[in-house]
Amino acid sequence: MAASLKPAKVENDIRNFGRWFEDRLPLFSFLRDNMGTYPTPRNLNYMWNFGSLAGIALVLQILTGLFLAMHYKPDIHLAFDSIQVMMRDLHWGWLVRNLHMVGASFFFIVVYIHIGRGLYYGSYKSPREVLWGLGLIIFLLMMATAFMGYVLPWGQMSYWGATVITNLLSVIPFVGPDIVVWLWGGYSVGDPTLSRFYAIHFVLPFVIVGVVVLHLWALHHHKSNNPQGIDLTKADDYIPFHPYYTIKDVFGLGVYLIPFTFMVFYAPDYLGHPDNYIPANPLVTPAHIVPEWYFLPFYAILRAIPIKELGVAAMFGSILIMFLLPWLDKSPVRSARFRPLYRPLLLVFFANFLFLGWLGAKPAEAPYTTMAALATAVYFAFFALLPLLAKVEKPKPIPATI
Amino acid sequence: MAKPPVNSQPATAVEDDAPLGDVNAERRALLINTTTAFGVAGAACVAVPFLRTLSPSRATEALATVDINLAEIPAGSVKTYLWQGKPVFVWHRTPEQIAKAKQQDTTSTMDAEPDAERVKKPEWLVVLGVCSHLGCVPMQGGESDGWRCPCHGSQFDLSGRVTHGPAGKNLEVPPYAFLNDTTIRIG
Amino acid sequence: MKLLLSALLLLAPVAMAGEGVELPHRKDWSFEGLRAGWNKDELYRGYTVATQVCMACHSFKYVSHRDLMRVGFTEAEVQTLAKALNMDINAKLISGMDEATAKETFGKVPPDLSLMNRARAGGADYAYWLLHGYSEDSAEIAKYLPNGVPPGAHFNKYFPGHAIAMPNPLTGEGLVTYHDGTAASIDQMAHDVTTFMQWTAEPERFDRQRTGVFVLIYLLLFTLLAYVTKRVIWKDVKGH
Q: What is the CA radius of gyration of chain B?
């Protein structure tokens, strides 16, 4: 018996078991093909880090959320207190809660940059239209998840945010008001609303994981775009994902975690709103209600148009129009590096988006409403100009290789 | 995002990268291992606070003791209290019961322990009302004049000692102290 | 990219700066900046004001005497303090005034104070200046409330709207007697009770800050190490 325990023998046994397993479920080769030897353009810049960062941010939210869920109580009489119990009585409860709270904000920062990178380098163009669309679906699911998550602490902003946002659906012709009542499970946001939002908030992230799998599948089918935006033809244009991009992503993760944990430990409330430390009160609306910062640009678009139905349509339209981007932009050139007209236009679009975010935090009064109307016009003008742009734009010479 | 990233431009001419000597390969491996180990250690440290959130909260820890007023238990009767979510039996034993419990020292031998070591004052028996078999709450009575467990029939005597299986251990004596003649603190 | 990040981060305070009143200036608090922990004497004095003045009407429903043991109070001290109020050390600091009476007296239920410093823009400064904001000077009142003080309300310069339901709680010097003999001036009491309220609002503050030091040092080292490793691994890639 003793002889059979020689290291060489053990190693051999492990290898044999590996082969046996691989024959039945080719897990190892799947991991190798998709994470190990997976061919990745060698010229990706740091903007490409944000994809993997978004994945890590999602996992972190699920993990911290799981531990919070074990202590949270989805009941309007207990919800607010249960969070104070986490913050005070639970060992390290404050850490997990702050990670989740700040983590949501940082997830959005990462995803906004990730989307911006796609826009800049034309990653939405053929053959990656479905990849782009799946990404936008993830973004929409994230927004729904974040919105419902913000309701859970049952503070004043939770309550009034939930009231205002659910009321958006009342613009649906004929059935709108009934749908809102159905959504609430009552005649106002209340206990049934909180319980169902909690259930949905818990399950949506797993739906997101599912769409992320599709997103990655689509990505790996046609491989990554690259800063030059050209199709790669030579074998040495690619390098294996591991170790090159694993270490680059690990380094990127470190850079990301520094400001993230700084906020968690030294400024957890910075991105939040003090009113959410006041328990929800259906009788008093706070003087200024604002959504979480990551919704502000869309909130500005909502308020820019003084007709309710149009405002709601513009807000949803501002995201939905992104799905059409691959077809609105008819230029065959992907990267903005070689597009002398698209590039400045896109930079204006980015600046305008930040401006909308700033406006979203301002009270709905002159002169901000006029500014918001203008900025909304600029937002949509970007998409309207794209089809024309391809006709007049003379791309810079595009290199044949990277 | 505004400007094209600098990093993809061939920044430095790396002419000397062709023959990586053994020394370099070794240093490279060492560096990779160090980074990996450092990262794994960090991740392991993060697990600690996460798992710690699952242990009893400070509020639960704060309520880990309970004070019992003995004056409310008449001689000869047992009262049940809740301590850390578990029942505690406090038996105000009569002199006859004490004498009987002492006699049982010789007969209750499954988990032999003299009655004198199981009490702080002979007239007060304090035991956990948790059967040492699988955690049911025993009922008063039974063939040994103490308790019997409704789940699987274990028997306990006047000192809470097991006299009949399937339980193999005596009822546990929780940590307690007399704060004064009429008050004990459990925990 | 950095520009974008900081621009995104800048949006938040814009969002917070909404309504409210201008506060005279930022106070230097003993819990701000690089500190090792709460100042126990300030907390003790703040506790005195909180329990003897505030708790006549307000509760601190997330705080018990036992919690003081986490900021340097001994069990004996805490037991003595709790006993003086006829409370169990595990009991939350609930005001003796019931909600119905409170509503009748003030027109509204006095809010719980545990989280007050986190629930108001301006935080500790707001609480501190609010306690300084009362005035009987009719000229000053007229400046802020030209139509006079509404019935049942009280003038307060720093309260949004300037008419507050709460009467001036710090009615005069020496309202409380401090354990350490500090003179209980209005400013001293306002300062101490605000510090106490900061502790009740975020008792985890220094746990957070202490842990953060270790985490950030670790992350800086780790990131540096990862960077060097990245450079070494990428050395043989064309164009790098």
A: 32
**What pLDDT is recorded for position C102?**
84
Preceding omega of B166 cis (within 30 degrees of 0): yes
Other C-beta atoms closer than 10 Å to the C-beta of A49 total 23
> Edge-to-edge strand order for the sheet containing B66-69?
B66-69, B183-186, B176-180
Q: Are A61 and A104 in contact (CB under 8 A)?
A: yes
B-chain residues within 8 Å CB-CB of A113?
1
Contact call for residues A138 and A211 (beta carbons, < 8 A): yes
What is the C-alpha to C-alpha distance for residues C52 and C43, in angstroms, rounded to an integer? Answer: 14
Side-chain-side CA neighbours of C116 within 13 Å: the count stands at 24
Question: Are A69 and A86 within 8 A, CB to CB?
Answer: no
- The Cα of C174 is separated from the nearest Cα of chain A by a number of Å equal to 32
Which of A85, A247, A337 is closest, CB to CB, to B57?
A85
Catalytic residues of A: 220, 224, 248-249, 292
Residue C1 has pLDDT above 50, yes or no: no
Residue of A nearest to C62 (CA): A84
SS3 C44: helix
Residue B90 corresponds to which amino acid?
Answer: V
Q: Are B186 and B126 in contact (CB under 8 A)?
A: yes
CA of A164 vs chain B CAs: smallest distance (Å) = 34
A85, A79 in Cβ contact below 8 A? no
Cβ atoms of A177 and A240 within 8 Å: the answer is: no
Q: What is the Cα–Cα distance from A272 to A265, expressed in whole angstroms?
A: 14
The model carries a pTM of: 0.88
pLDDT for position B99: 85
Among chain C residues, CA nearest to B24: C232
Amino acid at B39: G
Count of Cβ atoms closer than 10 Å to residue A231 Cβ: 12
Cα gap C131→C159, rounded to integer Å: 10
Q: What's the CA gap between A249 and A54, in Å, rounded?
A: 11
Does C2 contact A at CB distance below 8 Å? no
Question: In this predicted model, what pLDDT tens digit does every residue of A223-254 receive, in sequence order?
Answer: 999 999 999 988 889 999 999 999 999 999 99
Each residue's pLDDT expressed in tens, for chain A with a length of 402 residues: 445 567 788 889 999 999 999 999 999 999 999 999 999 999 999 999 999 999 999 999 999 999 999 999 999 999 999 999 999 999 999 999 999 999 999 999 999 999 999 999 999 999 999 999 999 999 999 999 999 999 999 999 999 999 999 999 999 889 999 999 999 999 999 999 999 999 999 999 999 999 999 999 999 999 999 999 999 988 889 999 999 999 999 999 999 999 999 999 999 999 999 999 999 999 999 888 889 999 999 999 999 988 889 999 999 999 999 999 999 999 999 999 999 999 999 999 999 999 999 999 998 888 998 999 999 999 999 999 999 998 999 999 999 888
Residue in A110, A150, A249, A261 to test binding to C, most C beta-carbons within 10 Å = A261
| CA A58 – CA A142 distance, rounded (Å) | 9
Q: Check: CB of residue C89 under 8 Å from CB of residue C64.
A: yes
The residue with tokens 């251990």 is B169
What ipTM was reported for this prediction?
0.91
How many other C-beta atoms can be found within 10 angstroms of the C-beta atom of residue C224? 13
Burial class from Cβ neighbours inside 10 Å (0-12, 13-18, 19+) for residue C217 reads exposed
